[in-house]
Each structure stands twice: as structure tokens, then as C-alpha cells.
Amino acid sequence: MKVRRSERLVDMTQYLLEHPHTLITLPFFAKRYGSAKSSISEDLGIIKKTFIARDKGFLETLPGAAGGVRFIPKMSESSALEIVEELCKRLSEKDRLLPGGYVYLSDLLGEPELLRQVGQIIASKYSDQKIDAVMTVATKGVPIAQAVAYHLNVPFVIVRRDSKITEGSTVSVNYVSGSSERIEKMELSKRSLKRGSRVLVVDDFMKGGGTVNGMKGLIEEFESELAGIMVFAESTFSGRRMIDSYDSLLCVEAVDSQTKTIKVVPGNYFK
Amino acid sequence: MKVRRSERLVDMTQYLLEHPHTLITLPFFAKRYGSAKSSISEDLGIIKKTFIARDKGFLETLPGAAGGVRFIPKMSESSALEIVEELCKRLSEKDRLLPGGYVYLSDLLGEPELLRQVGQIIASKYSDQKIDAVMTVATKGVPIAQAVAYHLNVPFVIVRRDSKITEGSTVSVNYVSGSSERIEKMELSKRSLKRGSRVLVVDDFMKGGGTVNGMKGLIEEFESELAGIMVFAESTFSGRRMIDSYDSLLCVEAVDSQTKTIKVVPGNYFK
User: Cytoplasm as a keyword (chains A, B) (predicted)?
Assistant: First the structure.
């Protein structure tokens, strides 16, 4: 059964969006719609043009017999900054300030629409790199890891501070919690990460960088490679940070418990 | 600037997919493309037809001045069953069996593509109900909650067994862990759930139902209402289950540690 162009465009758009970073061959689409490959090529041209115009990413076309098309989600820095500036405002709300100068984030990290955008922004930065897995630590990093992993089309793995029977054998490392200088332990299920993986580390919040540093250690234990570190928010830290290279979407510059004010600016992702 | 139909179809499809369960007015699209409302209506007709043909869900159109269109993701039971039967095979793999008869699931719950499908399947069941929030317990329920919440366009909240300073004030309940009959404690940040919410509970694995029962108790503490309980996998349980009404996508019927065999069948979602 032949499918008309208008319907093909709707279905191809949907299919491509749901399969980011996945090579889809022209014959696959040609068969799906009972159409000639030349028609499919024209359709893809329209989709490509629209995605670029709407800042959704681009279609990478690979010529030849093994060729096809791949959708690479990519958001421009200016669109990303718009979203992050809106987030700065929300993070600066007075009632987010918790005892000890912490900032309440859990509601934001439970909004699927926001997570989708954050996932797109972070994935955009690594869209042209080989990433095999996204790593985070339980619990609040998980939604961010999932959103990023979706847009990179790679699995995500969850490091835990408490061992669970349902994880099977684990590999553990000790690490120094940066802010409190306590020695803690984190572990990852042995079968969750292949040797030689390139791993992107994400987390919700970074102060001293101890937790992220622990994950760096775990990656070494798995004979894998750190591809990058990206945190949703960082706070200015008076001590010496345990890691030197990372990106943040947001930076909590100052909190004042007396006046209950929080000053949040875009992070070094934009520098 | 007027936008051609082909480009409108691509962008509208993308926009609708990224905003499930959200009312989008005709004037919004008309302005976005510089097109007449009658053209937009025709476009929506094409998208509607294609989504139905491809089992993606439907477009609900609301007439009148306050009207517009809403995309409701919905997967048919037969498509859902196909995905779940494939999952049964993967869950039955020998090397998933852990000491104590537990089944290793963490890799599956870290696959974004699978989570998207699971989210669609679960959200389909509740697509015509009023759901205000999805609730789960840390850690492994989180990816499922996020996927479901995305397709229902509602926030998700994470119940924790350990209190964290970054959660602010919490409400806690004690509950009986069904399998081990220990008394445990779980808590939820006070500001994360509004009174009078209708809450869908999801979790990765259910044995005795103690954890899910604890969440039921928490929902009562928040003067909210339980809309349903949905678990990714359940295992047959010899004792008395603490909850009577729930749905499962998968059922681990039997495990044999000697022969290392696991028997997994589709859950009662399909009954």
C-alpha cells in the first residue's frame, strides 16, 4: 500500500524523533511506505530543513549501500540560554532556600517537560562525540541521566551509596565527600558497564565535587574513560574543588539565609 | 512568513509529540505558521489519521473559542503485548538469576528506548483518567515513573527510605516490608505533592506489596487519592499480598536456582 507524502512526513518525523542517534536506512522507509527511495529522499530533505529552521537538530545523511539517515538532536546555545535563564528565575524563588544553604530542586527534577529540555541541552554538547553510557548517582541525578541518555540513545547506569541485593555483584570505591570531608563508599553493579566505555557523568548538584570525583574513580575501576562531567547546578565553593573540568547549566552564586535570597546565574556551559 | 504544508506537518507533529496531554489552540498554530485556521484544521486531520494508522495515539479536538487540539498517547493492547512478550524473553535469560531468587533488571531499566515504550504502555491505561502525579520509591522505580509522567504530562514524585537534607520537611510513614516482615520507614518531601491529588503509583518490582502499601499510606497522609498501582514486574508470592488491586506488565512465575531457569509471562495488565 502506497502512503501519501503528507502522511509519510508525519510518520517519518515521529519515527526519527523517537530514534535519535540511530541509523535508519532508506530501504526501511521505502518499504514502510511502499514508496520509491527518491521520494523518501525528498521527504527527508523537507524534514531536515524544518528541523534546522525550528532548532530541533539535524539529519545526518550517509550515502552508499549501507547508508541512510540519522537524527541528531541539537539545540542552539541561544535557545538553551533562554531556557536556562527562565530556570535561574525559578531557582531564585525565596521559598527554595533550605536550612544549611541548600536549594530545593526536587520539584523541578520531577517535571517531565523540563527534563526533556535539560536532556536536549546537555546531549547537544556531546552530540558529535562517542558516548557509550551516561552515569549518575542515586537518587536525584537519575531523571537527568535518563533525559540525557534518551537524546544520545545510550544506556544510563546508576551508582548507589547503599548496596542492594537486586544489583548482583558490584564494584565499589571509597571517596571523600568534598563538603563534609567524610569518607564514603559508592558502588556500581559489575555487569552494568562494559570495559572500555566512554562515559558521560551527570548529576543534579555539585558543591565540592566529591561525589563526581568518586564516579571518576569508579570509571577507572571499570577500565573506562571519562568523556565529560555535566551538572544541573553548582554552587560556589570556598574550598578547593576536587575536579577541575566540568560544565554546569546553573550556578548558585550566593545564598543569604537572613534575607532568604538566592542568586542564580547561568553556569559555565555558556562560557 | 507563510510556512508550507509539508513543513507545517513536520513541525506540528514534533510539537504535538513533545506536548502530550496539553491543549494547543488553533490560533497558536495559525500564528506560528502564518496560516489560516482552516489550513491548520486540515493539517491536524492528516496527523490524526496517521497517528491512528500507526498506533501512536489520537488527537482530541475541542471545538469553540477556547478549543484546540490535544495529543493523547495511546498504544493498543496488541502492540503492547508484542513489546511485553519480547521483554518476557529477555527477562528469562539465565544469567539474570541472582542469589535469593531475585531477577536482575537494572540494565533494562537503563535503556531509554525501552523505558519510552513502557511509559507509553502504562500511560495508555490511564490516558482517559484524571491523574495529577506519578509516585514511586527510590531508586529503581524512578526511570519508570519519569517515562510514565512524560506521556501523561504530569510531575512525578520520589518517595525515599532515607531522609536527605535537600528534601526540606518531609512526611513519613512506617510500613511492613512484605517479604521480610520488617518495619521500615519511607518519606516524601512535604511540598512535593498537593492535597487532593489523584496519584498513580508505579514501581519496578513487587513481591509482597509492602512498599506499594507504604506508598498508599503516604498518599492518605497527603489527603490524596490513589488512582492506580502499576508495577513493571511482579513475582508470584506465597504469602498474603498486602494490596488487592494492581496491574503488572510482567509476571515472574517461577525461578529455579538449581537449573538457573526463570519463567516470565505477561502480567495481569493483559487480563
Answer: no
